Amino acid sequence: MKERAVLICGHGSRDPEAIREFEEFAAALRARLADYEVANAYLEFARPVIRDGLLSLYRQGARRIVAVPGMLFAASHVKNDLPSEVNSFALEKPDVEIRLLRDLAIDPKLLRAAAERIGDTEGGGRGQSLLLVVGRGTSDPDANSNIAKLTRMLWEGMGFGWAETAFSGLAHPRVAAALRRAARLGFARIVVFPYFLFTGVLVKRIYAETDRVAAEFPEIAFAKAPYLKDHPLVIDTFAERIAESESGDPAMNCQFCKYRVQMIGYEKDLHAVQEAHHHHVRGIGTKGDHDHSPNDHSLDDSSFG
Predict the structure, then answer these.
(1) Is 188 left (phi over 0), alpha (psi -120 to 50) or beta?
(2) So what's the pLDDT on residue 34?
(3) What would the CATH number be for the domain defined by 108-224?
C-alpha cells in the first residue's frame, strides 16, 4: 500500500449508467497516478460513501490523502458537504493528513474539451447557429455565474452567432424556456451542450426536453452535443489538481462565495455552519431501495456537474 492516496469524490446518481461512467473515469485517472493509491466514493445515491472511502484508504495504510471533488464548480457540495465529510473524518483520525482540493472551475483545458464536444455536432455554419450551454443550476450565485462566463467564452471563442445559458434546476432560465426563447431568435440551428461530467437523470432530461421543443419548431435544426465524460483533457485537469497538492495550497477562489462574502439576496447564508446535507440519502444506492416523494432532495441528481 502506498502512503499517499487520492479519493475521487463524486456526487452520486440514481442512474446506474452515471455511476458506471464515473467508475470508468476513476479507472482512467488511476492509471495516470502510479505514485498514489486511488479510490472513489460518493456523497449520496451510491456506495461507498465518502467516509467509507476514506476509511478504506486509511485501513490500507494511507496517511496522506488528497480528496479531489469530482464536480465542475464549487457550490454547496464542494463548499459545505465535502469539507464536512473530510473534516469529520480528520477529527476521528488525527494521525492522517487529509487535504480537500479545489473544484475544477473554469480551466483552459476544460474549455478546449467543451469546444471539442460541441464540435462533434458540426453540421452547419457557426455564424448561423445558436449555442445553448446548460449547467446544473445551484442555489449559489457564484457557481451559476461561472456557467454564464463559460457560455460567453465558448460563444466568442468558437464564433457562434449567438449563445444562451440555461440550467437543469434551481436556477433560471430552465432548459425548455431557454430553448423556446432561442427558437424565436431566428437562427437556423441550435446546439445544446450540457456542461456536465457524466450522464444521469439530468443530462437525459436535458436531451429529452430538447427533443420535445425541437418537435415544436421543425424548421430549426437542433443538435445535442455530448457532455464531457472521459475526455482526455478532463483527465488532465483532474491530474493537475492533484499535482497542485504537492506544490502549494490548492485553495478555492472565494471572492464571490456567498458563505464568506455578503452577496445581494443571500445575506442569510453569510458565515453559515459548514455541514453536510445528505444524511437521508447517503449510500442508498441506485436500485430504488429508498422511498422518495417527487419533491424530495433525491431529485438533486447532479450528474456530477
Answers:
(1) alpha
(2) 93
(3) 3.40.50.1400
Retrieve residue 305's grid coordinates. Answer: 456537474
| 120 grid coordinates | 462533434
Domain ranges of the chain: 4-104+231-299, 108-224
Domain covering 4-104+231-299, topology: Rossmann fold (3.40.50)
Q: What is the CA radius of gyration of the chain?
A: 20
User: Global pTM?
Assistant: 0.84
Residue (of 48, 25, 66) closest to 197 by Cα position: 25
Instruction: Tell me if 98 sits within 8 A of 205, measured CB to CB.
Output: no
Asked if residues 165 and 151 have their Cβ atoms less than 8 Å apart, the reply is yes
**Do the bridges between strand 221-224 and strand 64-69 make them parallel or antiparallel, or are there none, so unpaired?**
unpaired
pLDDT tens for 38-91 read: 999 999 999 999 999 999 999 999 999 999 999 999 888 888 899 999 999 999
Q: Which residues pair with 141 in a beta bridge?
A: none
Give residue 23's identity as a one-letter amino acid code.
E
Report residue 251: phi and psi, to 5°: -80, 150
Provide the strand spans (E) within 30-180: 37-42, 64-69, 97-100, 129-135, 162-167
Q: Please, what's the b/e burial string for 67-105 (b: 16 or more CB within 10 A of its CB; e: otherwise)?
A: bbbbbbbbbbbbbbbbbbbbeebbeeeeebebbbbbbbb
Fold agreement between 4-104+231-299 and 108-224: yes
Alpha carbon distance 96, 55 (integer Å): 11
